[in-house]
Amino acid sequence: MKSFKKMAAVLGIALTAASSANAMEFKGSKNIPVVNGVAEIMMGATTTGGWTYMYVSSAAKLISDKNPNINVTPQITTGGGENLVRVAAGELPVGVASAAYIDKYYHGSGEIKPCPQLRTLYGSPNSTLSVIVAAGSPYKTIEDLKGKKVSICNKGNSGQLLVADLLKAMGRDNGYYNLQYLTPSESMDALKTGNINSLWICACDPHVAVTEIFAMRGGARFIEFSQEQKELFLKTDSYLSPAVRPAGTYIGQTEDYHSIGSPYALVVTEDFPEEVAYEIAKTLDENYNEWTTIFAGVKGATARNTIDTQIAPLHPGTERYFREKGYIK
Q1: Where would one find coiled-coil regions in this protein (predicted)?
Q2: Considering the entire predicted model, what is its pTM?
């Protein structure tokens, strides 16, 4: 069978992948070319080293390995903002973004016009908003960081948008902190060298930069938000929910960390080919256990979580697969 597939690819014969509904027979589109019978899909990620890059890379590997007529390639971008702009404009077929960005772009906000054409392809685990300082620093509360250098990640990063939103809700968006816009990797280096006092990051675990920060000489620790602040955050953005990071997730973390968080999602537009969306959803769901062995950080990226946390409606291909499986009625 494999030799036949290879021969067919060489001859340019379009292969079909059987599904429980109908066969995939995709001819190609403006931003998804079919080369030798293989649909070539670029998937917007973010900067390397971040959780979202690992999420996209592991999903791309699984999809490509399980589907001989689909090849997914991660594309480095600045993050969810760039991804949604390019997806909405038809320049990028798939991109990952946080709920913060999806909410802003799907519904519209300020200068951002609503993008009702956006659709959810597949979801992720919930992230956790974290405030990190060096273990030996004098800072105990977020108020102690007033006037200090605080990185909230690079502009265009999904976490940066969320933190900016929450700072505004607290009335601390006008110079309360000396904000720095560094990538997670840059923030890690700056925290190690003392060039910043704290990193605020919203990401799923395990995060590469956070892991290295907690492993640095002297270690690191989390600062919790007050209960009042967490309640304010939950009222500010409907897509947020309480989040708990278990003790032991990172080196030296001896207690559970209580915060808030939100999911990410792979986002497409409504004209993304239904048969391809169906196969992608099917692959990620049916091979969930294998996916977690490729990258442990995708634990919780289930069909159920995709359904429960969607902001943009499910893509018809994803929805059809979920209905066939009985996940939704």
Answers
A1: none
A2: 0.81
Complete DSSP assignment for 299-311: TT--HHHHHHH-S
pLDDT tens column, 177-198: 999 999 888 999 999 999 999 9
Q: Is 255 left (phi over 0), alpha (psi -120 to 50) or beta?
A: beta
List the Cα angle 49/56/274 in 5-degree steps.
165
CA 267 remoteness from chain centre: 10
What is the CB neighbour count within 10 angstroms for residue 27?
9
Q: Are strands 128-134 and 118-126 parallel, antiparallel or unpaired?
A: unpaired
Q: Which residue has the tokens 């003790």?
A: 247
Residues 6+ apart with CB under 8 A from 35: none
- Helices H / strands E in the chain, number of each: 12, 13
How far apart CA 291 and CA 224 sit, in angstroms, is 31
The answer to whether the beta carbons of residues 239 and 311 sit under 8 Å apart is yes
Spatial CA neighbour of 204 closest among 277, 305, 121, 322? 305
Q: Which of 92, 93, 100, 222 is nearest to 157 (CA)?
A: 100
Which tokens go with 84?
A: 């949604």
Q: Given CA atoms 147, 153, 154, 160 in this order, what sign does their dihedral have?
A: negative
Structure confidence by residue, pLDDT tens digits, 224-235: 999 999 999 999
